[in-house]
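Continuing from the previous page of notes. For each protein in this section, the sequence appears first, followed by its structure tokens. Read the first protein now.
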Amino acid sequence: MEQPLPLSVTHLSHNDMKGGGALACYRLHRALLDQGAESRMLVLKRYQRDATVTKVDAGPFTTPIHAADRLLRRAYRKRMADRIWSPGCFGIGGVQRHPLVQDSDILSLYWINGGFLSVGGVDRILRLNKPVVWRLSDLWPLTGGCHHPGDCDRFKTACACCPQLGSHAPHDLASRQWQRKLRWPKQDLTVVAPSKWLADLAAESALLRGVRIEHITTGIDLDIFKPLSKAEARHRLGLPLDRQLILFGANNATANPRKGFSELVDALRILRDQNGETAFNLVLFGGDRTPALPLDLTLHDQGVIEEEAEKACLFAAADLFVTPSLEENLPNTVIEAMAAGTPAVAFDVGGTGELIDHGATGYLASPGDSVDLARGLKTVLSTTASSSPMGERAHRAIAVAHDQRDIARRYLDLFSELRAARKPVQA
């Protein structure tokens, strides 16, 4: 019996490392290679020394494209309340003609903003008569330009009068870009949402109405992210053994207001005032600069961590991981922490509640409530001090639902199904 040819898939991502979407893309890409798929990544910016990742040759237009994108962002910056808002007006031309795109059975999109694919560039990808799977990192594919709409639900009907742009105009930039997205051909498009929360929002959106939507969660390499001896992990990282360690970190952790560093500082102040003498230290990673803490607390700044093994060691060294993000999809950091046997404390936003079992593997605080966040920190610190099995339960939960090998097989099954159902081009 003739064996089917290996499935070939090209993943399109802004980069291969920085940001949750890019990291999820790269991890899935490597897991698919382990499953025997012909997986490749095509990126605008390449950081890893990996021959299976290709940086697109953007030619002489890269600099002006990025300059135009920055100018447009700057024009709206004061009205965007420090939020990420991608107009999608500018991108690299000709990506649809790249050999890796032309030769693939499946095209898989991730976070493609930042001057990689414009709204028109996505349109050209969707017109190639190839199955396209878009793994959602946020809500941009179903809005007029925002990545996290907050309380706005105009994406369910039609984007206009965008509150993040401070606009009251029915034909503003959000409306124009939403109308352009409405013209995307979607007959070959399948959407994958890593959280049930995002899958439900995608199903309610006007732009993705009628599109097949699958829920496939995010996987992690359990051979890397696993429980370690806290004493050994702290010794390796030069962290104290006689203090409880609260770990906080994310991409651009302290500078992005959406990550909730201000709310965390308030919660730490409350916790310190309640306890008197502080028996805990704060460990920080992911920021380019060490922030000034407005309270007397020892801070260990680990900076930007790129090596997976080092990050896994840091998670294992902590007593708890806190993610006070005010908006999230399905945070990789929570999965990483719990896989390393460290309970997590977080605001109950987005898909975070799908990861943390309140009271069993961590604590879910009321969104934006620093008092409740402090209560969660105190609760989990008290359980870790008494050798509670909370961390063990956290690791088991991730091992059952987020094993990277299982997630890769689910994607491979979806890709194979879509390839088999592909309609040939009519002569």
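Done with the first. The second protein uses the same format. Note its length before scrolling.
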Amino acid sequence: MKFWNLPAALVVLATTVPAFAHGEKPHTSKPEDRAISTEDKAFGREGDPKRVSRRVSIEMSDQMRFKPGSIQVKRGETVRLEVTNAGKVMHEMVLGTMKELQEHAELMRKHPGMEHDEPYMAHVAPGKTERIVWSFDKPGEFYYGCLIPGHFEAGMVGRVVVR
């Protein structure tokens, strides 16, 4: 009987050590040394932090609003969006077209525990600040919204005008 306990103990030890080595960072962290995504979206692409031309502060509140509710950027401008959660509940900021945000909000209602991490998203715990570096290389009107179930529907949406 003791012979079988040793292999079981080794399996437990082998699978436990990597879990502790992971640390306390959430899986949704954005390491500074990772490659910048080259994926083009209708509203631009992930920006190079070394090419940021401007910083824009955006505050989220439990009143289900973004402040400011609208921002303007120049076509080709790379902006660091500093997103602060001034509320007491989790909020997020997701960039996209209105159609994409509406579709994603619907998906989030069906799967509220869904986890994802894209360069155009910032999940922000109460009292914390996260950053999105984005290059707005296409003109148009785009949006940012909190897609946590109920927040988008309550009006937690803002507008980006790219000229």
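What the second structure shows: The chain has two helices and ten strands. The beta strands are 45-46, 54-61, 65-67, 70-73, 77-85, 91-96, 121-124, 129-136, 140-145, 157-162. We return to this in next week's lecture.
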